[in-house]
Amino acid sequence: MAWNIQKISLSWTCAAILLCACGTITATPADFDRKTQDFARQMAQKHGFDQAELAKLMSGISYRQKIIDAISRPAEAKPWHQYRKIFVTESRAREGVAFWEANKDLLQKAEREFGVPQEIIVAIIGVETRYGRHAGTYPVTDALATLAFGYPKRAEFFRRELEEWLLLTREEELDLTGTKGSYAGAMGMPQFIPSSYRAYAVDFDGDGQRDLINNKADVIGSVAAYFKRHGWNRGAPITSPARGAGAEHERFVKGGMKPSFRIDELTRAGITPERPLPEESLSSLIRLEGIKGDEYWLGLNNFYVITRYNHSNLYAMAVYQLSRKILAEKSVRKG
Fold first, then answer.
1. Residue tagged active-site, from 128, 163, 164, 329
2. Dist. CA 290–CA 298, nearest whole Å
3. I need a surface site. Which of 95, 156, 300, 321 has the fewest CB within 10 A?
4. What count of other Cβ atoms lies within 10 Å of the Cβ of residue 172?
């Protein structure tokens, strides 16, 4: 059991945090230390961790106000035309082609085994971490504890993720104090949160460990496995512009992200796909705030599967459009 319990500097515990951006002072929550120690006791009782070692670890966790600030202003709150400019770029597409070429055998294997197109796998990694360049700078334990015990809005969710994280470090021999990730505790090139890591990561190269931090084989295989487990249909379409859609079709937009309207029902309402789709196919109607007005798209099953990775239509559309851009760039290089 490689835990590497180390003392973490209490840089902000019991001290005021200067927030330069807004000029205010935010202190560590008064009950933060008590809650972390309660959690240590519960984990020892429930999962058999050494209580003394875990208590030592939890006493060294740093509350990080920057994490609270970051989760309070997610990129998905931006309008589509601003969100798109972050992820669907020429440079990210070029880097995607380079990643594809460097890992072509692994990507081909993943597509054969799981049915997920190589360009979608590449685009996910491109959107998430720009092919590993931006995998996160926050210690995962600090991030999850900050949100579990300092962010009441989603405390229950992140407390569960902290529990999953401790179990994961024991199972996969990850560095409990040294592993870094996003402000929400997502890790590695594909940015799996601990519960997803434990449930969906695969050992794609057969070395006996599921390593999403350093092993590109496991990264690629795990992204494809995640989509397969969430219902990806091999060879099926993902999305299509919705011709004829407008403000009068708001009831379809409000129908939610999950495909629930038959194509023939949408057609009778005056909405048609850019290219023919089976009448019995189910779809959602997506409205995106474009720079020249609203854009409307059909969200088919595979589009919905992408939203299971990040529950946002903006995210799924960015992945789809980046994948198309990567394919176009790859074609140009071949030509």
1. 128
2. 16
3. 156
4. 17
Strand partners, 242: 273
pLDDT tens-digit readout, 36-61:
999 999 999 999 999 899 888 888 88
Second CATH level (architecture) for the domain 16-63+138-186 = Orthogonal Bundle (1.10)
Q: For the CA atoms of 19, 17, 10, 214, what is the dihedral angle to 10 degrees?
A: -20
Would you say 276 and 313 are in contact if contact means Cβ atoms under 8 Å apart? no
| DSSP secondary structure code for residue 192 in this structure | B
CB-side neighbour CA atoms (13 Å) of 327: 11
* Number of residues written out for the chain: 335
Listed residue (242, 8, 232) closest to 116, CA to CA: 232
Q: Which two tokens stand for residue 38?
A: 């309660």
Q: Tokens for 93?
A: 């597409």
Which SS3 state, helix, strand or coil, does residue 284 take?
A: strand
Per-residue pLDDT at 97 exceeds 50? yes
Which burial class, exposed, middle or buried, applies to 139 when counting CB atoms under 10 A from its CB (0-12, 13-18, 19+)? buried
For the four alpha carbons of 69, 39, 178 and 166, in that order, the dihedral sign comes to negative
At 59 the pLDDT is 84
- Alpha carbons within 13 A on the beta-carbon side of 188: 23
What backbone phi and psi angles, to 5 degrees, belong to 234? -55, 125
Q: CA–CA distance from 63 to each of 21, 59, 130, 259 (Å)? A: 18, 11, 27, 40
Report pLDDT digits (tens) over 197-254: 999 999 999 999 999 999 999 999 999 999 999 999 999 999 999 999 999 999 999 9
Residue with tokens 């629930």: 260
Cα 148 to its chain centre, rounded Å, is 18
128 is an active site residue:
yes
